[in-house]
Specification:
The N and C termini lie far apart (34 Å). The chain is globular. Strand 3 and strand 4 form a beta hairpin. 43% of the residues are buried. It folds into two domains: 78 residues, Glutaredoxin; 114 residues, Glutathione S-transferase Yfyf (Class Pi), Chain A, domain 2. With 220 residues, it is of the alpha+beta class. Helix 1 runs antiparallel to helix 7, helix 4 crosses helix 7 and helix 6 crosses helix 8. 55% of the residues lie in helices and 7% in strands. It binds glutathione. The site of glutathione (GSH) has 15 residues, from helix 1 and helix 3.
Amino acid sequence: MPKPLLVIGNRNYSSWSLRAWLALGAAGLECDTQLLVLDTPQFRTEVRRYSRAARVPVLLDGELCIWDSLAIAEYAAERTGQGWPRAVKARAVARAVSAEMHSGFATLRNLWPMNIRARDRHVAATPALQADIARIDELWTDCRTQYGAQGPWLFGEYSIADAFFAPVVCRFATYGTVGLGPASLDYVAATLAGSALREWSAMAAAETAVIEHEEVGRVP
Ligand SMILES: N[C@@H](CCC(=O)N[C@@H](CS)C(=O)NCC(=O)O)C(=O)O
C-alpha cells in the first residue's frame, strides 16, 4: 500500500508543515513528502491541486485529504494508536496544550516568524509578546513538573504536544530565550537536540529560497 503523502512548504519557514511532519513521526505513521516553495506563483497554482484551502500542510492518504496540522496529527494517532500520552488525564492535557498552540500565540507567531537558519535576530519586546512568552514558559514548566518525570519531553515521552511546540522552540533559538525559566530552557535544549528536528533543520539549511521578513509574517 502506498504511504500517505504530506505536502509541505519550505522547511525553513513553514512551521505548520514542521508540526505535521513531527506529529506523523510521533505517531509512527510513515509518509512521503512533497515540497511546494511558498510565496511563488507555482505554489498558488499547485497547492490547489491538493487542497482548496490552499495552505500547507496537506496529508493525502488514498482518496482522503486532510488540510490542517492538528487534524493530521489526530488522524495519525487514530491510525496507529500512538502519538498522545497513554494516561487519560495526561492525554487530555496534551490535547489542550496542542490546541492552545494551534489557535493561540498570534503575537509571537507574527513578530517572530519561524526562520530555522537564522540566529541572533533582535525584535523589540512588546507587552503582548512578553505575555505570549510568559504563557509559554508557564505551560512548559507546568507540563515538565507535573507530567515530565519519565523523560525530557512535555509529557515525559515524546508526543504530539512536543511536535506542536517545536517551531516555537526554533523561534527561541532565533530570537533569544529571555523570559524562559530553567525548566523551559532545559526543554528548549532537549528539543533542539532531538533527532527528528535536527534532520528537518539540516534540510532547511540546504534550502536556497529566501522569503523576506514582511512576507514571512503571512506564513507563520
Ligand atoms: N491552520 C493551518 C495553518 C496552515 C498555514 O497557515 N500554512 C501556511 C504555511 S506555514 C501556508 O500555507 N501559507 C501559504 C499562504 O498563505 O499562501 C494548519 O494548522 O495547518
